[in-house]
Amino acid sequence: MVHQTRSKLTALFPHAQHPVIISAPMLGTANSTLAAEVSKAGGLGIIPAGFDFTPSSTHLTTLDSELSAARTKLNILPTVSKYDDPLPVGAGFILSHPSFLTHFLTTALPLLRANRPAAVWLFAPRADDVASGAVRTAIAALKAEGFVVMFQVGTVAAARQAARDGVDVLVCQGVDAGGHQFAGGAGVVSLVPEVVDMLAQEREELGLGEREVVVVAAGGIVDGRGVAAALALGKFSCVCVVQFTVAEEAWTPEFRRNLILETRDGGPATVKTPVLDDIQGTPIWSGIYDGRALAGKSWQDHAAGMPLEENRRLFKEADKAGDTSRKITWVGTGVGLVKRIQPAADIVREVRGDALRRIRGLQSAS
Ligand SMILES: Cc1cc2nc3c(=O)[nH]c(=O)nc-3n(C[C@H](O)[C@H](O)[C@H](O)COP(=O)(O)O)c2cc1C
């Protein structure tokens, strides 16, 4: 029976149930309560860890307290040391800030060692840090501590490099995804099978040995239909879902929840561009990456020819005045399918159950 299936992912995360529904590390949106509820329901909740690795960084102090809070919420209290009792949640870092190179091993690693999340999710390294081997060194250090390393990629080339660098899980993010992603990416329907084929064909060149790299699909997957489709793309595929942006537990403010709930037709309603980061002043994304968000006022003015400086000025002024109309709402094309606010655990159970019913339905139809 499909519902009893163990998968490569449930072998890595024994608390989870197949197909594993993953709540991505959405910076500013996800938190320990959301992650704990997702994991309690048999999914995998990832707490966003941010990008600033400097010693006094608020990203790291917040991560520390959020991981402790998740431990309390999951009632997994340490026996001898935290080391003995891994937490069934992950911590998700963005690597594109220069402080990754200078501080990851001395600030983030000890914090992770003390808190023992089950997974460490990495995304968006700078090209130089990949080429120099700094990313490989960080992955090796995490693996040496026993962490499952998940790495989000948007191209086959990046997947190849990450597999060579030693990751356990490749999260293949398609261009429908909300938030930041590869500027030159592909949709999950072609990206995932091409990565699965690449891993099978290049096992030797990649030095995989007995190592199995698990493939997860992300981007535009919202409900059981998307999960069932993603599972068909490769035998290891499992999924990320962005309905969690409006989960009861998310930190998403009211105005964003309303925008997400009322938006339909996610293709034209969103835009994939580097310009919105230029307008809101988030210069951590190198040219490899851009972001998908609602095509709101800032974008419409840009598209109508407003100079960048003027757009930035209006953005700042509105922000200062508490006017949310120019704010950026990072969200993917799946936004049109998000229709209600639910507890995170209900989302996990509903999406997983619906995916299994659809897979069974396909089996009996054939
Ligand atoms: C609001 C928001 C914040 C995000 N923040 C992060 C992040 O901090 N780190 C990360 O690796 N991915 C982040 N992502 C991207 C997700 O990891 C994932 O690729 C994406 O949400 C999947 O596509 P979907 O939105 O269509 O479900 C974010 C996405 C959104 C919508």
Automatic annotation (TrEMBL):
It comes from the Eukaryota. The keyword ATP-binding does not apply. GO terms for molecular function: nitronate monooxygenase activity. InterPro entries: Aldolase_TIM, NMO. CDD domains: NPD_like (cd04730). Keywords: Flavoprotein, FMN, Oxidoreductase. Pfam families: NMO. This is Inosine monophosphate dehydrogenase.
